[in-house]
Amino acid sequence: MGDRYNIFSQMEHLQSKYVGTGHSDTTKWEWLTNQHRDSLASYIGHPDLLSHIAIAENETRARVRFNVLERMFQPCGPPPDRPNVD
User: Going by C-beta distance under 8 Å and a sequence separation of 6 or more, which residues neighbour residue 34?
Assistant: First the structure.
């Protein structure tokens, strides 16, 4: 029983420390948004990948970087309406 509690406390610690790991109340939209933002941040963080995208889109690296940063704002669109719980 002690091991089980220890595992759950470690998971809770990781989930509070790293937003992208999710938790039991994470919605599908939140999880997808985190995944898209992680991917977009990776594109910006790897200059060779950013250059590849720039060549494919026939744009400058600065313009591609700007477009990727703009897409990070709401990568999956606006959040869905939550049911009103009273």
Answer: 19, 20, 22
User: Rounded CA gap, 33 and 25, in Å?
Assistant: 15
Could you report how far apart the first and last alpha carbons of the chain are, in Å? Answer: 36
pLDDT in tens, 7-50: 778 777 777 777 667 767 788 888 889 899 999 999 999 999 99
As a whole number of angstroms, the distance between CA 3 and CA 67 comes to 47
CA–CA distance, 45 with 69 (Å, rounded to integer)? 11
Neighbours of 46 (CB within 10 A): 11
Residues with Cβ < 8 Å from 22, sequence gap 6 or more?
15, 30, 31, 34
CA atoms within a 13 Å half-sphere pointing along the CA-CB vector of 48: 0
State if pTM tops 0.85.
Answer: no
